[in-house]
Every structure is written in structure tokens, then in C-alpha cells.
Design brief:
Order of helices and strands: HHEEEEEE
Number of helices: 2
Shape: elongated
Number of strands: 6
Distance between the termini: 34 Å
Radius of gyration: 17 Å
Strand content: 35-45%
Length: about 130
């Protein structure tokens, strides 16, 4: 091991020891997202067709008289993308804490990144 590699390893260890739980979780999610081929949510732009992978933070059913919606916030360690299924009250497996990969076109609603009716693939529970 060269001295540069040793410094990098030591720096990584020190960063890991001083990081908060949220920072460590974000780093792990970013690594997992990259391994599954997902685009980092912070890099997603309006109009792009992307594949994002991460963990569902919240899942909310919004009852509306004309069009019910199911919304879920997908966090990949870099940013949040809101997944919106129009006309759905419940989808089996879509629950907080679940890991999934979603694919679709990014829109922006109220300054938030949104994918409407995404294609999704649930990852097996860990």
C-alpha cells in the first residue's frame, strides 16, 4: 500500500467515525443506488426519463373525489423523488422502508421532483 492509499483509507475511517447516522445512511443509499444502476436523484432534471433506486420514506394516500392518488417519497441518499400513482388507493409492497427502483419521466410540482405512474421493481426485503 502506498502512502497516498494509506491516507485515503485513514481519511475514510475518520470520516466514518465522525459522521452522523443520517450521513452514513445517505452514503450507503447512494452506494446501493449506484450499484443498481440508478441515476442520483439530485442529478435528475425535468423531462428526463430516469431510473432511480432508493428507500421509500413516506407513503400517503390522498383521497380525492375525482382522482385518488398514492404518493411515496423515494430517497436515494442525495435527494428525494416523489412517486405518484394516479387512481390508486393501495399497491401491495409499497410501504415505508421498502427499497425499490422506479423508472419514468421526471416532472416538477411545487419545486419537487415527481414521477407520475412510474414503472417500479420492488427489491427483496433485507
Amino acid at each position: 500500500m502506498t502512502t497516498d492509499e494509506g491516507r485515503v483509507s485513514l481519511r475514510r475511517i475518520l470520516r466514518r467515525l465522525t459522521a452522523s447516522e443520517a450521513e452514513i445512511e445517505a452514503q450507503e443509499l447512494q452506494r446501493e443506488s449506484a450499484e443498481s444502476g440508478g441515476v442520483p436523484a439530485r442529478q435528475c432534471m425535468r423531462g428526463q426519463v430516469v431510473s432511480v433506486a432508493g428507500r421509500l420514506r413516506t407513503v400517503v394516500y390522498t383521497p380525492r373525489t375525482n382522482l385518488p392518488t398514492l404518493e411515496a417519497d423515494l430517497y436515494d441518499g442525495s435527494d428525494v423523488v416523489t412517486l405518484v400513482w394516479l387512481g390508486r388507493r393501495h399497491i401491495a409492497g409499497i410501504e415505508p422502508g421498502r427499497h425499490l427502483t422506479a423508472r419514468g419521466r421526471v416532472a416538477v410540482r411545487d419545486d419537487r421532483k415527481v414521477i407520475y405512474n412510474p414503472y417500479y421493481e420492488l427489491e427483496s426485503p433485507k
